[in-house]
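Hi, here's the filled form for the chain we discussed.

Project: internal
Contact: R.S.
Residues: 301
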Amino acid sequence: MIDLRFDRVSKRYLIPHEAENHGSSHPWMRKLRSLWRTPREFWAVREVSFEVKRGEALGIIGHNGAGKSTILKLLASITAPSAGEITINGRAAALIEVGSGFHPELTGRENVYLSGSILGMPRNEIGQKIESIIDFAEIREFIDIPVKRYSSGMYVRLGFAIAAHLEPEILLLDEVLAVGDMAFQRKCLDRVRALRQAGRTIVFISHDLNAVEALCDRVLLMQRGEVIADGPPGEVIGQYKALSTKGTTSPFSGIGPVREWRDLDVRGDRVVRLRRVRVCGEDGATMSAVDIRHPVGIEIT
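And the returned structure, exactly as it came back:
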């Protein structure tokens, strides 16, 4: 059975032109001139089609601005499509920003009830799960003080703990596993795995390629609002890495794994001059892409 279907879905935004400064023109006149000009179109998502089967975990990857989060907002009904049709079979819950429903003056316990309600959990269900939520967040001694006194780590721990106890048929996740320390991230990953094994349908957006590969059955690669690859995680992630090293451009000249300065441009003074900088691996080879699982070196001449 298909739980999610995107059928030629597009999302268009109209971006107004900034008011130009015409000498000593009055600010209201500049504003009127900007209103007369036709807004610029920006297509965050353009004619995207895909399906997600029940119990499948779909990953969506791509550079910033590729349209990944827009797809999640469309699925969560936070925004409406400009064209196309979206079909959702089942109750969906979106976790787009951890702790977004918290009130700083309320205690952690009170915020569990508030945020849980915002995320769609009935009050009696929250009451049944609150002890488990507190244990998961590992902040029991602070649960009855206002969250405005929490550290950022405690804040996101509690936020994810609440979301981790949602039980929707379809779970939408946007960069939510990058919370807390490494041990807690592993705990979050295990929780999402458990939801997947329980037959939940998951759509997972992340820049953490290791997590995407570990969690997902299938991955979409997006670029400029369009799907450019759809397939097994290892294969699509490989395409993304190749795209990252071959197809990128920079507004700054000389940016890359190696930077050298000619004699006339050498940076420094009479004591020391910088001639060359290189990114390299353990074997000394120049690295065009950095993998955080392996050592990386900066060689300076």
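Let me know if anything looks off before we file it.
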